[in-house]
TrEMBL record:
<dbReference type="GO" id="GO:0016491">
    <property type="term" value="F:oxidoreductase activity"/>
</dbReference>
<dbReference type="Pfam" id="PF08240">
    <property type="entry name" value="ADH_N"/>
</dbReference>
<keyword id="KW-0560">Oxidoreductase</keyword>
<protein>
    <submittedName>
        <fullName>Threonine dehydrogenase-like Zn-dependent dehydrogenase</fullName>
    </submittedName>
</protein>
<feature type="domain" description="Alcohol dehydrogenase-like N-terminal">
    <location>
        <begin position="25"/>
        <end position="123"/>
    </location>
</feature>
<dbReference type="InterPro" id="IPR002328">
    <property type="entry name" value="ADH_Zn_CS"/>
</dbReference>
<dbReference type="InterPro" id="IPR013154">
    <property type="entry name" value="ADH-like_N"/>
</dbReference>
<keyword id="KW-0479">Metal-binding</keyword>
<dbReference type="GO" id="GO:0008270">
    <property type="term" value="F:zinc ion binding"/>
</dbReference>
<dbReference type="InterPro" id="IPR011032">
    <property type="entry name" value="GroES-like_sf"/>
</dbReference>
<keyword id="KW-0862">Zinc</keyword>
Length: 143
């Protein structure tokens, strides 16, 4: 697949990246239909945050679910979904109190990089929200 990788300040490239795959049974694979450049993406782009190696970019995204792990129960293949910038289980005490970004199982989506054609989303049931019905297609890339 193609995805954005930041190689250094001001050096964002669209390049080939490995296709994502289900790693944990709570994962989903989505086809990203839109992704944003967040203000926090600009910190490393501007050189404020340093990295010694190329890093994938993106943590704000929507898309269509292409595949789910065996333990995903509420998200289905074909759902149009909005995802959080932190993966969360949405079941722990912290999530139930409304602080999903501080979930005891939180994973940073930015480390996965959603400015790409596809993304593996951990803890899919807690991280993704399906928005039925699918938005009206504006291109052949919609649901
Ligand atoms: Zn949680």
């Amino acid at each position: 697949m193609r995805g954005v990788v930041l190689h250094g300040p001001g050096d964002a490239r669209v390049e080939d990246r490995p296709d994502p795959a289900i790693v944990h049974p709570t994962d989903a694979i989505i086809r990203v239909t839109a992704a944003c450049a967040c203000g926090s993406d600009l910190w490393p782009y501007r050189g404020v945050d340093k990295s010694d190696e190329p890093v994938p970019m993106g943590h704000e995204y929507v898309g269509v679910v292409e595949q789910i792990g065996d333990q995903v129960e509420t998200i289905k293949v074909g759902d149009f979904v909005v995802g959080s910038f932190f993966a969360s289980d949405n079941t722990c005490e912290i999530c139930r109190a409304g602080y999903q970004s501080r979930c005891v199982h939180a994973e940073l989506i930015g480390a996965i990089g959603t400015q790409a054609q596809y993304a593996r989303i951990p803890l899919a049931d807690g991280t993704l929200v399906a928005t039925p019905p699918c938005p009206t297609p504006t291109s052949s890339r919609a649901c």
